[in-house]
Specification:
By secondary structure, this protein is mainly α. The chain is built from four helices and no strands.
């Protein structure tokens, strides 16, 4: 097995066309979501903008963190020297991701405001899009 990470070694979901598909779908999803919610005059669209921006910031952080973890440990995992769970930072990354995406799932049970719920949906779309952008930027730097 090679000693340098190359794009060929990455799984299907880490290929550039897959990243582009997820990025386009998240942006398209956000545009459609804003078009639908803007029909209701009672909804404050600022919550959607705030949620999308926060999702972009936290999603990009998660994508950068994941790319560093893969850069350091993916070859060791392929060689079966370690599991990803044993890689440095994997447990903390998993906790962060579960908190960043899991907390919005439980918020609708606690929050009764329609405006806030609109922001949560935008947050999830921003998080997914930005995470895939960060990962795609990393994959593009890996030699073919």
């Amino acid at each position: 097995m090679q000693e340098k990470l190359s794009r060929r070694l990455l799984p299907f979901y880490m290929k550039l066309p897959v990243f582009w598909a997820f990025i386009v779908l998240s942006v398209l999803g956000q545009l459609l979501w804003v078009a639908v919610i803007s029909q209701n005059v009672r909804i404050d669209l600022r919550w959607s903008s705030f949620g999308f921006g926060l999702g972009i910031a936290l999603g990009f952080m998660q994508g950068r963190w994941t790319s560093r973890l893969w850069q350091q440990s993916y070859l060791k995992v392929l060689k079966r020297q370690i599991t990803f769970w044993d890689a440095k930072g994997a447990k903390l990354l998993t906790f962060y991701t579960c908190l960043a995406l899991g907390l919005p799932i439980f918020c609708p049970f606690l929050i009764r405001s329609l405006d806030t719920l609109v922001g949560i949906q935008s947050y999830v779309l921003g998080f997914i899009g930005a995470m895939n952008v960060a990962l795609m930027l990393w994959v593009r730097r890996i030699p073919k």
